[in-house]
Amino acid sequence: MTQSVLTIEHVSKQFGRFQALDQVSFTVEKGDIYGLIGENGAGKTTLMRLITGLSPMQHGTVTLLGEQAGHYQHALSRLGAVIESPAAFEKLTVYQNLRLCAIQHGIQDKQAITEAIDFVGLKAKQTTKVKHLSLGQKQRLGLALAILPRPDFLILDEPINGLDPSGIMEFRQLLKRLNEEQQTTILISSHILSELYQVSTRFGIIHHGRMIKQLTKAELDKANQSGLAATVDDTALAAQVLDQHGYQDFDIIDDHHLLLRQPEVNAAAVNQLLVTSGVGVQDISHQAGSLEQFYMQLLGQTEKQEGQA
Questions:
Q1: Which of 188, 215, 204, 216 is nearest to 48 (CA)?
Q2: N or C end of the chain: smaller count of CB under 10 Å?
Q3: Which class is domain 225-288?
Q4: Which CATH superfamily includes the segment(s) 4-215?
């Protein structure tokens, strides 16, 4: 039986007339690395600020580690977070920042500080003032501060923003180690979708403040294989038509999407076959198979539906 670390139910948030979040619902299960995907302004940071109590609730409920937002007692002590930019004192050293963090959390064991520094690879920089660190080193420090109390749940908002390729790879490895070695559940947002794909076990896609899609990595891989992707009004009828005409290597993704696993198949011929057989076809095209491709297709379909509404 899975255990929920975070449950979001019908959460909405407005800033003046701007609807930042609109009836968002999703769940993060224990052991997940949940990748939160969305454009700038989609609502990712707003959502993370609500979860951590940095922004007040308006509508809906957030349940974190068994406690509701606005009534947290112990949940925040089991949470680590880096939202927007790591909070550190520029004039203090790496070690001094972690020492202050330890005092705030009532951690008396100095070995915990050393372990956090070693874990993120800042041992050689522990006596360096934060103002002299590179961007990547500051991101590592932010992670060290967040994991020092050994949280059950870690929230990271664009943690690889500005890192070079080697820094991104190292950060990815750190997150996997946290998840596997310390059983830390992670909620992470990033605009670098290729990296999010490599580290995440589940995904949620936010667009204009709404959660438009949730799926596991296995479901994404199934939907994302190369072939001919079709968006139709009736997948059951479409499947029947395709099967009757010799197209048997296909998957029904959901009520409106199916994928023919025959990359060489002629899209125009399949489109004509479906339409003349009474199937409404909204879109049909060859897909290469990546998180970016899936995301762009989903956004295109969503915006088309919004335009027709």
A1: 188
A2: N
A3: alpha beta
A4: P-loop containing nucleotide triphosphate hydrolases (3.40.50.300)
